[in-house]
Every structure is written in C-alpha cells, then in structure tokens.
C-alpha cells in the first residue's frame, strides 16, 4: 500500500463513548470528510497529564497506531470527521464564507472533564481551504501546542492541545518547512463566525438551530431567565459578552497579545482559540503589535478589549433576526462595558496583592502602568520582582528596572501605604498570580530550532515550565530572565 495513503479499514479505539454533538446539526453546518494522511508520522510531544485527565491511555496514544490516529492517517473508532463552515470579519472587513480550511473535527467524546470535541489542525485540504494547502508546519504547531498549555497554566480559559505529530513531508510557506498536526481539545470550537455565516445568508432556520444548540448545551440558564425580557437569544448574547469581557481582562493582565482577533477566531464559550501570531509582552509597550501581517495595528495589545467589543457587535448583528429587537440586543451588549473594567481592576489588584477595594486603587494601577510604559520595563519581570519585594527582597530589585528612579520611588511609597499589614500573605498571593515563567517568543524560537533537528527536549522543558509557571524551577532560572537582543527581531505573522 502507498505509504501516503491511510488504511481506511483501520481504526483506533480510544475507550471513550462518542456522542453526536455538533454533527447532529446536519449537513448545512459542515462537510463530512476524512483527514488527508501524512507520510511517516512521528510523535513530537504528547500531553500526558491532559491525556490522563481525559481518561485516555498515554501509552496507547504513543504507540504506532496511536500516532497514526493523532495524525489523521487512521480514524478513531466511533468518530465522525467533518469540517465546519463559518464566515467572519477579518481585520475589520467582511470576508464572506470561511470555514475549517485546515482543521477537521473528529467528533465529541464523553470524558471525566465532560464532553470534549477532538479536532485535528493541519490535517489536509477541506472544501473551505480556499487557496490553502490545509496543512500546518512544525513551527506553528509547536507554538499552538505550547501556547494553549501556557494559557491553561496561567488559569486563562483556552482550548487545549493533546499532541503534536510531525512528518518529513514538505510544506511551502515563506520557505519549505515540514508538516505537523496538532490534536486540539475543547468543549466546543463554535465561533462567532458560525452565527455570522447563517445570518448573512438569511438562513434563519439554521441560525436558530445553531443558537438553540449552543444554549441547550452550554448556556441552559438563558432559558427561563427573566433578564432582557426573557429573550433566550438576548440572554445568550449577554452571557457571551460577559465571558468575553472576563477573558479580555485576563489577556491584558498577563500581557497576552493574540494577534489576529477576527470574528472567526472568537470562541462562543469565551475561550482563547487559534494560536497563530500570539505573543506575551516583553517590554511593556501598550501599542505593541505582535502580528507582522497587521500593518494597521488593528490588533495591537491595547486595542484588544475594544476589538472584542466590536466583534461582539458583529455577533449581536448576526443574532438580531432571533432577538427581533435592536434595543434589546444593544442592552445585551452593554454588560461588556461593566464587566471588563471590573474584571480588569480585580486582576490588577490581585497582581498588586491588594485586599478589598479602595477608590485610590485605580490611580495606583494607572500610575504604575504609565511608569512601565515610559521606561519600557519588562512586564513579567516587573511583576515577579514586585512580588518578591513585598515578600522582603530589597527595593533595588524593582528600582533597577526603571530609569525614572524618583518616580518609581514615589509610587512605591504610595504602594507601601496601601499594602495590608500582613505582607507575607499578600506576597504569597502575588507569587501565585504573577508568573515567573511566560512563553516568550525567543523561548519558543529556540525550542523550534531544536525541534527542526529532531531534538524535542526543549519543547518538553518548556511544556513543564508553562504547566507550572508560578513555581521557582531553579534548574531553569535562565528561562525567567530578560530576552536577548535578537528576540525583538523575531517576526510572527498569520502563517506562524
């Protein structure tokens, strides 16, 4: 048999019950098709803790049949692979029909974590690939794998990644690279763009079917809720708005830049989804643009909260045929303006180790962010050093980060006055809030360079760190330091 072709009769039994899930919506929502096999697949990394949490056997997944299934060369027994169709706004412009151009949903399984969808990314062309090849490369797959687990380690809602498999099969990007596949896990991969698709085509029956599915599966409290005139679709819009607002506060607090916040990259469950040109801030530059393709800076770090709100308006417009009242839809979106600043202030108070709320806290937060921006201070290192300062380390550890010593000294005096008497408790909370390790671009780049030489040890080391980013890990102290000068020249784009 041709080694590039899968054995269509072969299957791997995960030992978990499959259920219909998204596939039950019907053929208007997807195209059923099998993944396209890759030549000579090999395991790059397996997320064994996640496998065990899902009730899966890591040894089975790491076996040759398991690796073949993780790559899409054979199917999981009971799965029903499909590519879903959606539309969306990309960089603020209506792009029309999009869809899973290089992803295939294998199906939904019942796990100890609840129902979870399994999806392959990089598994070949689909009817929605447009001009693409349907593939992912090793570089981008490692970034997605580590990126999603880094967010999980930080406590930020996210899709997960179970595995990366690689192949020597060539893929053309800016240069010739090798192919890889990520197996992603989430309760649902439904996006704002799924709703935009059916609304834009005036397929209101399918739009209602999709909204009812999402409400019944993930937001059942929207039915029977008296808020917003008891309208379940307005309640859905409000709930998604509030989850998205909370997610944006978490992104901003940890210094995360998504890089491509198109409406088709926004999760209906408020999860971080689609790790492409993402980055964690090194220097605190509020208008930092992490996506080399984003020439207008639409998705700069400080614009993310407003872009999320704009995307929610697009979702609201898509749901309007169901809500049937524009004022009601606008009222559903209003909660974003309340939830985001409240969540943001709460996250920043936690980073500062403050208990309770005081009127002056907002100014204290704004002042320190202005100081960080003025001197382009390393964002994660500042917060970790401030945590150590509260624990009793010398103030010089913080002061040495700033050129404007007098200004930071003045801020520290105000901060000391606001800290609780029990500084040890505050410090413990801060050290559990402000990570020592973040997935910086240069760390990813170094791991990718080794992986291209078939050495995956740096990937595994980073995976261990991002799973427990608040721990000390003294053996990896170098990974918690300042980025090298060359890190600022790393370019990441929509192909990353």
TrEMBL record:
- For the ligand (Mg(2+)), the binding residues are 265, 274
Enzyme Commission number: 2.7.7.-, 2.7.7.108
* Molecular-function annotations in GO: AMPylase activity; ATP binding; magnesium ion binding; manganese ion binding
- Keywords associated with the record: ATP-binding, Magnesium, Manganese, Metal-binding, Nucleotide-binding, Nucleotidyltransferase, Transferase
What are the required cofactors? Answer: Mg(2+); Mn(2+)
Q: Give a single Pfam family match.
A: SelO
Q: Where does ATP bind?
A: 99, 101-102, 121, 133-134, 184, 191, 274
Q: Which reactions appear under catalytic activity for this entry?
A: L-tyrosyl-[protein] + ATP = O-(5'-adenylyl)-L-tyrosyl-[protein] + diphosphate; L-seryl-[protein] + ATP = 3-O-(5'-adenylyl)-L-seryl-[protein] + diphosphate; L-tyrosyl-[protein] + UTP = O-(5'-uridylyl)-L-tyrosyl-[protein] + diphosphate; L-threonyl-[protein] + ATP = 3-O-(5'-adenylyl)-L-threonyl-[protein] + diphosphate
Q: Where is the active site?
A: 264
- Keyword field contains Metal-binding: yes
Function, as annotated, reads: Nucleotidyltransferase involved in the post-translational modification of proteins. It can catalyze the addition of adenosine monophosphate (AMP) or uridine monophosphate (UMP) to a protein, resulting in modifications known as AMPylation and UMPylation.
Concerning its family, UniProt says: Belongs to the SELO family.
Mind telling me what this protein is named? Protein nucleotidyltransferase YdiU
Taxonomic lineage is: Bacteria, Pseudomonadati, Pseudomonadota, Betaproteobacteria, Burkholderiales
- What gene name does this entry carry? ydiU
């Amino acid at each position: 048999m041709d080694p590039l072709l899968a054995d269509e009769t072969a299957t791997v039994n995960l030992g978990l019950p499959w259920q219909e899930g998204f596939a039950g919506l019907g053929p208007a929502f997807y195209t059923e098709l099998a993944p396209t096999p890759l030549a000579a697949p090999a395991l790059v990394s397996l997320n064994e803790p996640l496998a065990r949490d899902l009730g899966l056997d890591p040894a089975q997944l790491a076996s040759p049949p398991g690796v073949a299934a993780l790559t899409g060369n054979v199917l999981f027994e009971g799965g029903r692979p499909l590519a879903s169709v959606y539309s969306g706004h990309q960089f603020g412009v209506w792009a029309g029909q999009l869809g899973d151009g290089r992803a295939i949903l294998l199906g939904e399984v019942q796990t100890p974590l609840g129902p979870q969808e399994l999806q392959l990314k990089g598994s070949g062309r689909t009817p929605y690939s447009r001009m693409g090849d349907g593939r992912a490369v090793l570089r981008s797959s490692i970034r997605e794998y580590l990126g999603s687990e880094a967010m999980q380690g930080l406590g930020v809602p996210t899709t997960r990644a179970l595995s990366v498999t690689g192949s020597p099969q060539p893929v053309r990007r800016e240069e010739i690279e090798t192919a890889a596949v990520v197996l992603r896990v989430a309760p649902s991969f439904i996006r704002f763009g799924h709703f935009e698709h059916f609304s834009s085509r005036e397929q209101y029956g399918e739009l209602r079917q999709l909204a009812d599915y999402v409400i019944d599966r993930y937001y059942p409290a929207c039915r029977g809720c008296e808020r917003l005139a008891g309208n379940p679709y307005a309640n859905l819009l409000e709930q998604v708005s509030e989850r998205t607002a909370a997610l944006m506060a978490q992104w901003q607090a940890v210094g995360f830049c998504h890089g491509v916040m198109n409406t088709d990259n926004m999760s209906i469950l408020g999860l971080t989804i689609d790790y492409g040109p993402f980055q964690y801030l090194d220097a605190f530059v509020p208008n930092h643009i992490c996506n080399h393709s984003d020439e207008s800076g639409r998705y700069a770090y400080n614009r993310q909260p407003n872009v999320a709100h704009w995307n929610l308006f697009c979702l609201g417009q898509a749901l309007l045929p169901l809500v049937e009242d524009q004022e009601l839809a606008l009222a559903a979106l209003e909660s974003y303006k309340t939830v985001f600043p409240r969540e943001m202030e709460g996250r920043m108070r936690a980073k500062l180790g403050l208990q309770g709320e005081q009127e002056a806290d907002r100014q204290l937060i704004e002042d320190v962010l202005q100081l960080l921006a003025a001197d382009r201070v390393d964002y994660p290192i500042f917060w970790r050093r401030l945590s150590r300062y509260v624990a009793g380390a010398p103030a010089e550890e913080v002061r040495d980060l700033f050129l404007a010593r007098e200004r930071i000294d003045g801020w520290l005096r105000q901060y000391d006055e606001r800290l609780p008497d029990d500084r040890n408790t505050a410090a413990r909370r801060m050290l559990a809030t402000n990570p020592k390790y973040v997935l910086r671009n240069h760390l990813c780049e170094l791991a990718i360079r080794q992986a291209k030489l078939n050495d995956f040890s740096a990937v595994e080391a980073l995976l261990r760190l991002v799973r427990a980013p608040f721990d000390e890990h003294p053996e990896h102290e170098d990974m918690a330091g300042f980025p090298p000068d060359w890190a600022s020249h790393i370019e990441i784009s929509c192909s990353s």
